[in-house]
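Example with several molecule types.
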Amino acid sequence: MITSPSASARTGPCPGWLWLNSSIGKKTVVAVTGIALVAFVIGHLLGNFTIFLGPDAINAYGAKLQSLGPLLWVIRLALLGILVAHIYFTMKLWQENNAARPQKYLASNPVGTTVFARTMRLSGLIVLAFVIFHLAHFTVRVVDTSYATMHTMLDGHEVHDVYKMVVTGFSSGPVVFIYIIGLFLLTFHLSHGLSSLFQTFGITNRRIRQNYETAGRVLAWALYVGYISIPVSIYFFGLGKGVLQ
Amino acid sequence: MNFHLKVWRQKDTNAPGTLEEYEAENIPAGASFLEMLDIVNAGLTRKNIEPIQFDSDCREGICGTCSLTINGIPHGKGRGTTCQLYMRKFQDGETITIEPFRADAFPVQRDLVTNRSAFDRVIQAGGYISERTGSAPDANSVPISKVIADQAMDAAACIGCGACAAACPNGSAMLFVSAKVTHLGLLPQGKPEKNRRVLSMVRQMDEEGFGNCSNYYACEAVCPAGVPAAFIGRMNREFTAASVKEMLGMSV
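Resulting structure tokens for the full complex:
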């Protein structure tokens, strides 16, 4: 008989802990936190699109977010916690996976896998570096400290001039290059991640796998096109040039 | 046909191993890969060199005993086991690298022979049904839909050779375990124990030191029985569902 003590007689670690420490439990945590982060990435992009509605739209959007006050910090800390869990469990899995295959093949021949899947950890870590740069650039504003002093009037209130900051930021070639590369790696990461989570949750069978793999890749590239449309519009097509004079 | 072989030689589990080079000469194109090694070994024995040790049993592709990673691919290129791989699939004069199945849970015993008992212990943890169900029931007395029967049969095709874990860059045995969980969990005889089976087998799998699935699907690409990786998704779902039941204090 497959041994399984009855619920009342169970001793040892609690079932929740066992699940969290199992290989599937850890993978599920990475998938769930990944979904939360992708949801943020989608929401962030929709917010960014207000730049195409003109200075007032994005400045009002920025002012609205700032006006959330404590709630904004709750969201920020929650995102940080999710990110930390995503990375922590990935690193734990990575460590175990390395231990499970200490000796590599001398004649290596990767079959069945994609370059996206094989580079998940690398692309993820580069994306992390990019996110840190992005926060330093537009949130903490230490890359160019003049951003912090950009203000404008909106409906009689003085607000931070997000529009001018973004246009100034993306008028620099090296910065645009960093964003294009950083976002490309995010796309790389999501190309595998978005389809992988269906497998991890078990929403799969032989028939639908091709569909969600394609859908995941399409969404990843759609996000890429959406995100880089902003630096590309500013740097190459002169969006918002007027505010710099 | 002639081949230039690079073969992993290792005295025992703890000894360091190296690739040794051998020539395989006058090999018939119709020889299987294992027969090619037999011919090479006969030559080595004549020269008083210790023959290359490798696993084999039925040599008709059904037992799952033969292994070998050939040019980096478990069981070599193409679908099927090493014993069903014929030398005509290779180019004359080709250099062929032969390594053992690599996974921490499959220690090398000697040369190309690995100890795959970890799979046996995973099976012992729950890869069976506990109740004797009598002799084969009358056909159609237990109705099973064609879809379920086909799926269970596809999972039951697993011969437990270990190529999935050997191909996986993470040394993960998820394809093997998911095949067993799916095969038994889908049919009426195995269903009553499906929750405790998946919990028990996955925990044993982790304990044996197999890695975690990164959804590379290398396992599926090399599986000689064509077991699809969708079964891994199925097992993920069942394991989490069974864990939730356990967390809620339900009997599983």
